[in-house]
Design goal:
0% helix, mainly beta, four-stranded antiparallel sheet, globular, seven-stranded mixed sheet
Length: 123
């Protein structure tokens, strides 16, 4: 079982930057999980933001491409989401997700493990 804990969400101004973190508790199998960030804006469905496979290139939603960067630090068992040039449309609860296989950004229900979320508000 994989435990995910997000942090770093806060209220910021449009144009600001913010970095979210997600610690992964299952260290022995950490390297073999595909990891991703999703978000759920108020009153909307959960949507994919970025996906990071164990090997290969990251994938991003069109709405964040060029502004957000997903990365991980294996030594710290931590996944990151660097968010630049934030705008009010980025306001959402942000979740990290993990699965043995990359499930894609369009299928949140397919991902097996989730954190509790961290709130980002941009005004």
């Amino acid at each position: 079982h994989v435990q995910l804990v997000e942090s770093g969400g806060e209220s910021v101004q449009a144009g600001d930057s913010l970095r979210l973190s997600c610690t992964v508790a299952q260290t022995t199998t950490y390297g073999r999980y595909c990891l991703a960030w999703f978000r759920q804006p108020p009153g909307q469905e959960r949507e994919g933001v970025a996906e990071l496979p164990t090997f290969g290139a990251a994938a991003y939603a069109e709405s964040v491409k060029g502004r957000f960067t997903i990365s991980k630090d294996n030594a710290k068992n931590t996944l990151y989401l660097q968010m630049n040039r934030l705008n009010p449309e980025d306001t959402a609860m942000y979740y990290c997700a993990a699965d043995r296989f990359c499930r894609g950004l369009g299928w949140p229900l397919a991902w097996g493990h989730w954190g509790q979320g961290t709130q980002v508000t941009v005004s």
